[in-house]
């Protein structure tokens, strides 16, 4: 293939992968912000453990459990559901792009 085409494809895949992962993180941040603002009582269930001291790692782990479930859809909040879906599907865009970058690197290495 043309090296210019591969260079452009490489950069596009690299940027698309980075954008996908960035959207995954940003969607999680937006989800948390909406939960804190609109559903403070429900957010406390995630942020405050039943036993032991609260910590950021424990809160993050509990948040991951919530995000991996279908619980966010039960709120019937369109914005919350949208950010939950972006969080869920953004890596499905990012990983194939970055795998494509690795394939291009492997096939064009000298």
What are its keywords?
110 residues, mainly alpha, 5 helices
Summarize the structure.
The protein has 110 residues and is mainly alpha-helical.
What does this structure look like?
Helix 1 crosses helix 2 and helix 1 packs antiparallel against helix 5. The chain has one domain. The mean pLDDT is 92. The chain has 110 residues and is mainly alpha-helical. The chain contains five helices and no strands. The chain is elongated.
Q: What is the topological layout?
A:
Layout: H1 3-38, H2 40-47, H3 56-68, H4 71-74, H5 78-108
Helix pairs in contact: 1-2, 1-5
Transmembrane segments: 6-27
Keywords: Membrane, Transmembrane, Transmembrane helix
- Round the mean pLDDT to the nearest integer and report it: 92
Main sheet specs: none
Number of folding domains?
1
Tell me the helix content: over 70%
Percent strand: under 5%
By DSSP (H or I, 4+ residues per run), the number of helices equals: 5
Q: Could you give the distance between the termini? A: 15 Å
Low-confidence stretches: none
Q: Any idea what the radius of gyration is? A: 19 Å
Q: What characteristic shape results from the CA principal axes? A: elongated
Reading the helices and strands in chain order gives HHHHH
Name the structural class: mainly alpha
Number of strands: 0
Keywords: Membrane, Transmembrane, Transmembrane helix
Transmembrane segments: 6-27
């Amino acid at each position: 293939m043309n090296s210019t085409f591969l260079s452009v494809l490489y950069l596009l895949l690299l940027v698309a992968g980075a954008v996908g992962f960035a959207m995954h993180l940003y969607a999680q941040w937006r989800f948390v912000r909406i939960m804190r603002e609109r559903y403070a009582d429900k957010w406390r269930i995630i942020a405050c453990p039943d036993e032991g001291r609260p910590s950021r790692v424990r809160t993050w782990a509990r948040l991951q459990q919530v995000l991996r479930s279908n619980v966010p859809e039960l709120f019937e909040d369109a914005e919350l559901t949208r950010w939950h879906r972006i969080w869920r599907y953004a890596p499905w865009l990012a990983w194939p792009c970055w795998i494509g970058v690795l394939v291009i690197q492997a096939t064009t290495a000298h």
